[in-house]
Amino acid sequence: MVGVSLLCAAALLLLLAAGGAIPPPEEAARMARFVLHNCDWGALATLSAQEGLRGQPFANIFSLSDGPPGPLGGSGVPYLYLTDMEISVQDLEINSNASLTVSLAQTPYCKKHKYDPQNPLCAHIIFCGSIVKVNDSEAGLAKKALFSRHPEMESWPKDHNWFFAKFNITNIWVLDYFGGLKIVTPEEYYNVKP
């Protein structure tokens, strides 16, 4: 009982130290939106279509964005800038299903609090779904989201045939506290204010 009280007190101190910026553990949908919006990259896992690895899991790092930096800039949609020349994109052409993991370990937050990236208090989110090319009406939004965080992208070689894509979320798991994963539905995720 004392251990649980100490954990609750530690969580309260953590929230106060962060200026209330990080959502509390009982708001898993808000936490998922918060973590995605504060991350500039994630690990995208596909099923490999490559010779010698066919059917095996394959993870790769991709820059991403759900909108311009700042508290009101996030849509919750993970946008990516891709080329068919990339090995994971070749996997996605065979099977568009994937998972995407983002973690506060890439922000100053976990280092400031001396949390190991595997510590549940260093929140990470696992999205499952598929990668789809955005349509013309959404391309402007994806471009603004990505280029505002990754300005270098604008100068990437044009002959690589870059295109904007999004992660179409079907399942969400949140690990932000002790006691195991929390499941958040896409509806809960998109309906909550970050």
Walk me through this protein's architecture.
Strands 1, 2, 3, 4, 5, 6 and 7 form a seven-stranded antiparallel beta sheet that branches. The chain has six helices and seven strands, in the order ααβββαβαβαββα. The protein is α+β, with helices and mostly antiparallel strands and 194 residues long. 30% of the residues are buried. Mean pLDDT is 90; it is low at 1-20. It starts with a helix and ends with a helix. The chain has a single domain (24-191), classed as Electron Transport, Fmn-binding Protein, Chain A (Pnp Oxidase, Chain A, Roll). Strand 6 and strand 7 form a beta hairpin. The chain is globular. It has helices at 2-17, 28-37, 87-94, 108-112, 136-149, 186-191, and strands spanning 41-47, 57-63, 79-82, 97-103, 124-133, 163-175, 182-184. The longest helix is centred in the first third of the chain and has 16 residues, at 2-17. The protein is 30% helix and 26% strand.
Short summary of the structure?
Helix content is 30%, strand content 26%.
Order of helix and strand elements from N to C terminus: HHEEEHEHEHEEH
Strand tally, please?
7
Task: Label the CATH architecture.
Answer: Roll
How would you characterize the largest beta sheet? 7 strands, antiparallel
Indicate the overall shape. Answer: globular
Q: Report the β-strand fraction as a percent range.
A: 25-35%
Number of helices: 6
Low-pLDDT sequence parts: 1-20
What is the residue-averaged pLDDT?
Answer: 90
